[in-house]
Amino acid sequence: MAEPNFLYNPEDNEDLELDIERCEADRSYSLLKREGREPGKLIVPKNWDIRKNDISLLKIGGISLSPLEDVYYGIHNLFVPSEILDLENPSEIIANYLGAGILKKHNAQLVNGDIPKGSFSDLVQYMNSVAYNNPIFAKYSHESKNRFPATSGFQKKRLSHLTGDVKRRFCKSFFSKYRASNREEPNNPEAFLDPLNWNKYVEGIYQHFKRRFASR
C-alpha cells in the first residue's frame, strides 16, 4: 500500500487565519521554558497504545455504517504531527482521522462553511464532535485505553501548549486537497488502494500507526 503524500503548497489556504493562535501558543511554550517547566520527552507507549484489537471494535453495523472505512480514508488524507499524537489518547487520535475521513470527502472541507478555519483548537473540537456523533465510535472511545484524562476540556488543555508551527501543520494538512481512493477515481494513478474489506482496513490502519511510531 502506497504511503500517503501529505505535501502541500505553502501558499495554499491563504485565508487560514491562525496567526493569533500561533503566537499565543509560541508565547505559552516560551513561558514554560523560562520557568524551567519545558516539557521533556514524554514516555510514549508503543504505537501510542493503539492496538489492533481495539481498532477491530469498529467492525460493527456493516461497512456502510461502521466508521472503519472513514478512518481508513482519513489516514490517507490527514497528517497529524507526532507532537500531537504524543499528547492524545488512542480514541482522540482515531477521532482526528475519522473526522478527516468524513469531512474531507470530495474536498467538502473547502466549501463547508461550518468548519472552523481560524483556530486549531476549534477545528479539533469540531472534528471531535463529528467523530463522536457516530455511536459506534462513541462506544469504542469508552473501551480503548486512556493515558490522559478523557474529561471534556482536558484534550484542549493538553494541546494548548503545542507550538504554533505544529498547529499550523495540522490545519494545513486538513485543508489540503482530498486524496481519492481507486474506488472513487479508478483512472487516477495517485489514488490510494481501497480494499473494501474490514480486516484489511484494520490492518492498514494499524500498520499506519506502526510506521509512524517507528519514524517519530
Describe the protein's architecture and organization.
- It is a single chain.
- The chain is an all-alpha fold and 216 residues long.
- It has one domain.
- The chain has ten helices and no strands.
- It is globular, with a radius of gyration of 17 Å.
- The N terminus is likely disordered.
Given the C-alpha coordinates, what overall shape results? globular
Taking the sheet with the most strands, its summary is: none
Spans where pLDDT lies below 50 across 5 or more residues? 1-20
The structural class is mainly alpha
**Helix percentage:** 40-55%
Strand tally, please?
0
What number of domains?
1
Oligomer: single chain
Total of helices: 10
Fold blueprint:
Layout lengths: L18 H16 L17 H5 L11 H8 L6 H4 L4 H14 L16 H13 L2 H9 L10 H6 L4 H11 L23 H17 L2
Helix pairs in contact: 1-9, 3-5, 3-10, 5-6, 5-7
Task: List its salient traits.
mainly alpha, about 0% strand
Summarize the structure.
The longest helix is centred in the C-terminal third of the chain and has 17 residues, at 198-214. This protein is an all-alpha fold and 216 residues long.
